[in-house]
Fold:
Amino acid sequence: MLPLTARDAPQAAALASRLQLPLLADGPSSSVDETVQAVVRVEGERLSLQRTGTGVAGPVSVDFGSGSMRHRRRSGANELLGRAVGVGKKSALRVLDATAGLGRDAFVLCDLGCSVLLCERHPVLAELLSSGMRVAATGDDGWLSTVCARMQLYPLDARDLPRQVLSALDVIYLDPMYGQQGRRAAPAKEMALLHELLGEPNPGEDAALLAWALAQAPARVVVKRAPRAPSIGDVEPSYCIGGKAVRYDVHVLGPLG
Structure:
C-alpha cells in the first residue's frame, strides 16, 4: 500500500490493515522491495494499481469518467451488450455482474438503464471499484452520479450472495475477463495486472460458475466471450450476439417482464 503524499498516509494505513498488505512510506518514489510485483497507490479518494520495476506501464484505476468510457458510451458495442441482456424488454432490468473486474460493462449497463449488482471477490479489485464508484458518485458530473446510483457493489464471490438477492435478479452476466485467445476487451497493461492478481485461467472454475448461474434460474444468463472462443463448459447457448471483437452467449431460461 503506497500513499502518494503524507496526507494520504492515514487512509493508506487503514486500507493496508483491512487488506492485510504492507504499508510503504509515502511518496511516488518510495523504495519498493524488488520482490513486490505491484502496489496499490492511494491519492486522495482515488486508488490505483501499479506494477513495479523499470519500464512498466502506468497505473490502472477505475475511472468511469475517463475519455475511453465516454467514447464507449457512443460506441455501437453498447447496443450488442444491451441486446444480449434484454434492455428494452423490461423496464429497470436487475442484472448481476458476477465477475465485475474493473466494472466497465456494469457501468455501461447502468447507463442503459439497468440496475446492476457488482460482485468482485478479489479484495484489491473490490477496493478499486469502490473507489471509482465513490469518486463518480460524489463529483460534479450529473451523468456520472446518476449512473452510479444504479450500481451496488458486493465485495464477495457471487455464489455467496443471499438467496433473497439472487431470487430478485432478471439477468446474470459473466465475463471471465482474461484467458480468451484473441481477446482485446481491455488494454494490455490491464490484462497483465489482472493476470498478476487472479492467476492462471481456470476453465473448470468458469464452467462451475456458469453451472451455478444457470441453476439460479434468472430469465437469462449472458456470457461474454471472444468471437472464436468455445462456449464455456461446452454448454451451448440459446443464441449468440456477436461483433468483430466480442460475442455474447445468451442462455434463455424464462421470459423477461
